[in-house]
């Protein structure tokens, strides 16, 4: 019996005890104690709160993954064997190159509308092509496109994280050149290929090698369609570059001042594009006025309206140009033909050849003015 009593006493020592303390301020507290098993004290409420804090911390880490979108895991060991041919997507070299490619895309968007300045109203009252500006614009565009070709090459040699293996910012790096090439071909290769086609250069070079009256009209019509059709992919290719910058650096614009300057740059580019298009359509409106007033009974021929080398040696053209009233009716001051918003370009004299800086600044001012006024123009007095 004494032995059983000692056993019950030992079990009683290991059992939890509770004690109700005295009421303090009308409240009572219940304290649990669990001595033994090598622990000094154990509080279930404290343990529960500690586990809750740890679980909330894990949820926050899942809610806010790696901002750069980069894989947290280390690169595969196989990348060492491909390091000469495959680029790490997190390399600082690619970050600097993407910033450089972004600037080249902005320059390309600004240079393409310069082709709208190529048609001019020559001093002999005919539509011609500014050859000096044609050579300059084609050379600058070719250089910018050559720079972007480097990005096309890098896209075929830059590793990427497999989408199927991404788990909370981590993933498996794909370094197979075939898979990398197939991924780029299925995504942005077609857009980059169409944007890099030298179509305006071909149109201009063709005219420079055979400059004649009918070629001026064909060159003028071809330029507007080629530039406008290629402008869309050349504008859209900026977004993949900015996407790569965000993936590599985590952010695209770091400060508020940089963001304000970025959007101001787009506003200025919009004014530049609107102004150059307004210049080209002014040439088109002048051409329409000439064609309306060109009658065969007056000795007018449509080929007289486009500059040609035969004009200087043609007595028939000289006699017609000196006697025709077309140029007086289509100078923007006669109310017989409605020029609308293009009358300002005719009166200002910017449609003539030469003085490219003042011409581009005037058109830039006109574009910004109409963007600000929502399309309503105001004529300077």
From TrEMBL:
- Keyword Transmembrane appears in the UniProt entry: yes
- Which BP terms from GO are recorded? monoatomic ion transmembrane transport
User: Transport: present as a keyword of the record?
Assistant: yes
Q: Which GO terms describe its cellular component?
A: membrane
What organism is the protein native to? Triticum turgidum subsp. durum
Which key words tag this protein in UniProt? Ion channel, Ion transport, Membrane, Transmembrane, Transmembrane helix, Transport
* Chain segments annotated as transmembrane: 100-121, 133-154, 188-207, 222-239
This one is known as: Ion transport domain-containing protein
The lineage, from the top, is: Eukaryota, Viridiplantae, Streptophyta, Embryophyta, Tracheophyta
Q: Output the superkingdom of the source species.
A: Eukaryota
């Amino acid at each position: 019996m004494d032995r059983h009593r000692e056993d019950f006493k030992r079990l009683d020592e290991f059992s939890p005890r509770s004690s109700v303390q005295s009421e303090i301020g009308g409240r009572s507290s219940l304290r649990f104690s669990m001595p033994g098993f090598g622990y000094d004290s154990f509080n279930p409420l404290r343990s529960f709160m500690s586990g809750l804090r740890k679980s909330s911390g894990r949820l926050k880490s899942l809610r806010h993954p790696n901002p750069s979108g980069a894989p947290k895991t280390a690169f595969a060991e196989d990348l060492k064997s491909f390091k000469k041919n495959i680029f790490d997507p997190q390399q600082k070299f690619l970050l600097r190159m993407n910033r450089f490619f972004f600037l080249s895309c902005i320059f390309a968007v600004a240079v393409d509308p310069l082709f709208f300045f190529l048609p001019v109203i020559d001093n002999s009252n005919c539509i011609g092509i500014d050859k000096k500006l044609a050579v300059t614009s084609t050379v600058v565009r070719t250089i910018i496109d050559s720079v972007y070709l480097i990005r096309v090459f890098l896209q075929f040699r830059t590793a990427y994280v497999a989408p199927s293996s991404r788990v909370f910012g981590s993933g498996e790096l794909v370094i197979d050149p075939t898979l990398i090439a197939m991924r780029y071909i299925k995504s942005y290769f077609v857009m980059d290929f169409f944007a890099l086609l030298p179509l305006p250069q071909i149109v201009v070079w063709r005219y420079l090698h055979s400059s004649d009256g009918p070629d001026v009209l064909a060159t003028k019509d071809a330029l507007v369609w080629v530039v406008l059709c290629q402008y869309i992919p050349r504008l859209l290719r900026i977004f993949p570059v900015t996407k790569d910058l965000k993936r590599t650096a985590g952010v695209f614009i770091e400060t508020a001042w940089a963001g304000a300057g970025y959007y101001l740059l787009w506003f200025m580019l919009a004014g530049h594009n609107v102004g150059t298009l307004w210049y080209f359509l002014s040439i088109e409106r002048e051409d329409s006025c000439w064609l309306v007033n060109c009658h065969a009974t007056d000795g007018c021929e449509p080929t007289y309206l486009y500059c040609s080398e035969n004009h200087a040696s043609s007595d028939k053209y000289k006699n017609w140009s000196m006697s025709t009233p077309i140029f007086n009716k289509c100078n923007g001051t006669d109310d017989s033909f409605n020029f609308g918003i293009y009358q300002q370009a005719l009166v200002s004299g910017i449609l003539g050849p030469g003085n490219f800086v003042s011409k581009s600044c005037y058109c830039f001012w006109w574009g910004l003015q109409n963007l600000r006024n929502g399309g309503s123009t105001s004529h300077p007095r």
